[in-house]
Amino acid sequence: MNITNKTILVTGGGSGIGYEIAKLLKQQGNTVIIAGRNADKIKKAGEKLGITAIACDVTREADIEKLVTRIQQEYPALSVLVNNAGVANLYKLGEQAGAFQKAKQEFEVNYFAPLLLTEKLLPVLSQQPEAAIVNITSNVTFHPLILLPTYSDAKAALHSHTVALRHTLGKNSSIKVFEVMPSLVNTEATKDMGGSNGMHPQVVAEALLKGMQTDQYEIYVGATAQQRADYFANPVAAIENFNAGL
């Protein structure tokens, strides 16, 4: 897929992976729009990158409707949607863990939001001669990390949905569906889970670009490819190794 002269929307673009994706895609000659919940943060990121920034809480349907309306009116050539916004709660399942409330928050951001935004923007994307949907998931799509139990649930659900969407659109659509699955990334959001030992978010952005350019629909970044191979070879051992010492 050609990733130049495209109009691209990146959610969660105020920092971390989303920011690096927006930065790299702009450098490729694209028109990039970023969206994020924190109005001040997303505005500053947009100013720094020299791109349009839109405040949008993707857990609010009204915010998504406003975002979609603005895209339709101001950016009718939108051809790439990157669903990157995410949230994770670090905890273990058990009594008084509050798993239900934590899962509700994580599914709202990590699963329901990309489903709704994607569906609302399909009419715009389908008008383009070449278009793409990119969902950022994780290495936990194949097996859970017990310190991120319901985050793992949400990313596994998004992985399943991504596969279904890809096969549904298939060859009868101009829309390609990509999934990016990074292992640990060093961002502000991962500092409490050892993120300083993770890869720089720029690595994820570069892998995304290369994967899209070569039509690699599942893009494994960092340790994910080996972890996936280990899981399919021996699921029980892989899950034990993935959670060793936790």
Automatic annotation (TrEMBL):
Listed InterPro entries: KR_dom (IPR057326), NAD(P)-bd_dom_sf (IPR036291), SDR_fam (IPR002347)
Family: Belongs to the short-chain dehydrogenases/reductases (SDR) family.
The name this protein goes by in its record: SDR family NAD(P)-dependent oxidoreductase
Xref: Gene3D superfamilies: NAD(P)-binding Rossmann-like Domain
Superkingdom, taxonomy of origin: Bacteria
Coiled coil: none
Domain Ketoreductase: 6-181
A GO term from the CC aspect: membrane
Keywords recorded for this protein, A-Z: Oxidoreductase
Any one Gene Ontology molecular-function term assigned to this protein's record: oxidoreductase activity
